[in-house]
Amino acid sequence: MVRILLSLLCLLTSVGFASAQDLQSILQTHSDEVAKPSRNSVGVMLDDLVTSGLPQVPVFLERWADRSIWKDDTTGLFYIATEADDTLTLRNVDTGEETTASSDDFSQMRPNGGVRRVIGTALVQFQLSDTNPERRQAALESIARRSDASQLEPLMASLDGEEDPTLRARKEQLINFLTARFGEVPEERIKAIESLSSDTSVEARAVLNQILSVTTAVATEQPEGNIASILDPMADPSASYEKLVGADLAPAIVSYSDIRAALEANIVEGRVGGIPLAQLDDQETRSDAYRVLADAGTVPPLVTPDDITTAVQDAVFYELYDEDDVAITDAARATLDEVETRVGWAQTLDLALDGLSLASIYFLAAIGLAITFGQMGVINMAHGEFIMMGAYTGYVVQLIIPDYTVSLLVALPLAFAITFGAGVAMERLVIRHLYHRPLETLLATFGISIALQQIAKNIFGTQARPLTSPDWLGGALVISDVIQISYIRIAIFVLALMFLFILLYILKRTRLGLEVRAVTQNPGMAASMGINPGRINMMTFGLGSGIAGVAGVGIGLYAQVTSEMGANYIVQSFMTVVVGGVGSVFGTLAGAGLIGFLQKGIEWLNPSNTLAAQTYMILFIILFIQFRPKGIVAPKGRAAAD
Predict the structure, then answer these.
(1) What's the CA gap between 461 and 440, in Å, rounded?
(2) What separation, in Å, do the N-terminal and C-terminal C-alpha atoms of the chain show?
(3) Contacts 24+ apart (CB under 8 A), 135-138
(4) Which residues on neighbouring strands pair with residue 478, listed in sequence order?
(5) Residue 51 and residue 26: Cα distance in Å, rounded?
């Protein structure tokens, strides 16, 4: 009873002080419309709400749209309410004061989908000028999802007061989109359309495609209006004839079952169309009987294949622009063609960046092998496992040092040291006994690779281990809506360049590099000059293994760290070295570039089957080696003779 008295008091107050307008008084004026809104008539009430400028209106509209408005059946007052069991928590639409009541005395307002869309449009007008930037952002995204001509004016009105540069740019972009689609002045629409020529975003292309939307139609004479294209009906005569039937320009095709039913319905004294029933034992005779009935007007005419061909050829099938103004569609078509050209170039550049990224990964994986195989001639099938050891080193370091940046800086030199030591041990214990015996070397290193994989499984298990990149390597460098590349791939590219210059410096500018080249070209002469070939071979193999370990840290940031990850790169590493040119660092770089760009190009041509892309790539490389067996950068001098 107390609740009813309070509600009546609120109602009397809202009526008695209408001059100090509040939301409840406006709702009472349009009480029937709130309770049973119609899409065609709700606009009057929404205009009054928008005109009032009351700060509580946006909240009411949001709650009304999500069906959280309830009406007191006794007093007629409206509340924002949430229901729990049979109890409502009521909130006054003006003051926000909360009370509770039984839901039995209230009715829930349930606007339909059409009304909710109209409410959403009105709500956007408030949100565009809201003091909360997140609400303004949400309003802009709502406009982007459901563009409407009515949104253009409030969007333009909110532009002057927008201080956030990002939101202001977004508003200007949406104003341009809406003007292009819904502007009232053709010249302004054309200007807005032409301004989209430099915008390669999906939204801009969608706007242009919406302007160029077409309706397929058919006519018996040359059509009039803004014609998009004339279609070839003979590409699919049956479908074209169905369109004629749908447009009431041709009789429907009579099926065999319809012919049979018509004949059964017109049997007269044992005959149909003058033909005895006993003779109606084949389809051709039934068709003759049906034609007799059709000529008499008893049944619809029989449509023959010749009739279909003639009717289709005599009609005009065309696409008609939904936009009537030819100048606007011409501008949209020209702009869309220009945008698609830009998108094509952007996709080409994006594909090139992907190829460059993959090439840097292959180069990073193969650069160590370029030393052990290219300089020493050792077929090291365990090279991939050194990459795996480096990746697991990075993982263990991250377990000890939780700061991912510091752990990465520690992991790189530590991975080099560990894999350098492992490479030296492998060379001293196995490889040095197998020089100039390539088959035995291949088998021995293959066995070592299997052993190293099993050791990794015993220590770390079979599950993939995370090697997490620092936050500053998260995300991607976005150049445009089409072109972007992840920061991790950029980091791997930089790391590959660093090792390229470091390796070139070691081989060209240091005593170790001089001795390596001397031992590689003529170990006997190098030994006579005081160089220890065994020590140089050990250091060279260790250097190649250490670089593979560092590569493992970089690759681990991009790929999954497992005991078998090295096997995924060993084939590509050997192909990179062989295709580039054995014994040449620049050849390895060229081979990585060729394989990386080739693989990405084949994947672009056949995106649904990456295995097929790798197969095609291997076949191409086999053919390439047939014509250039010494690789892209062929060795010269004594190395070439060897």
Answers:
(1) 30
(2) 107
(3) 136/162, 136/164, 136/167, 137/167, 137/170
(4) 484
(5) 11
Q: State CA 76 to chain mean position distance.
A: 51
Q: Are 331 and 187 in contact (CB under 8 A)?
A: no
36 within 8 A of 115, measured Cβ to Cβ: no
Contact 426, 545 (CB under 8 A): yes
Is residue 354 a contact partner of residue 596, using CB atoms and an 8 Å limit? no
> Using an 8 Å Cβ cutoff, are 367 and 503 in contact?
yes
Output the pLDDT for position 634. 66
Q: Which residues pair with 316 in a beta bridge?
A: 219
Domain ranges of the chain: 2-119, 128-213, 215-321, 344-641
> Tell me, what's the pLDDT at 583?
67
Who contacts 123 (Cβ-Cβ below 8 Å, separation ≥6)? 58, 61, 62, 65, 139
CA distances from 510 to 303, 383, 496, 513, 514 (A): 91, 25, 20, 5, 6
- Among the listed residues 592, 571, 586, 512, the one whose alpha carbon sits nearest the alpha carbon of residue 383: 571
Instruction: State residue 41 phi and psi, 5-degree precision.
Output: -115, -10
pTM for the structure as a whole: 0.68
Cα atoms in the Cβ-side hemisphere of radius 13 Å centred on 422: 25
CB 415 within 8 A of CB 395: no
What are the residue ranges in the chain where pLDDT is below 70? Answer: 1-21, 374-375, 583, 607-612, 634-642
At residue 430, the 3 state secondary structure works out as coil
Convert the pLDDT of each residue in 440-455 to its tens digit: 888 999 999 999 999 9
CATH class of segment(s) 344-641: mainly alpha
**Confidence at residue 374, expressed as pLDDT on a 0 to 100 scale:** 67
DSSP for 595-621 reads: HHHHHHHHHHHSTT-HHHHHHHHHHHH
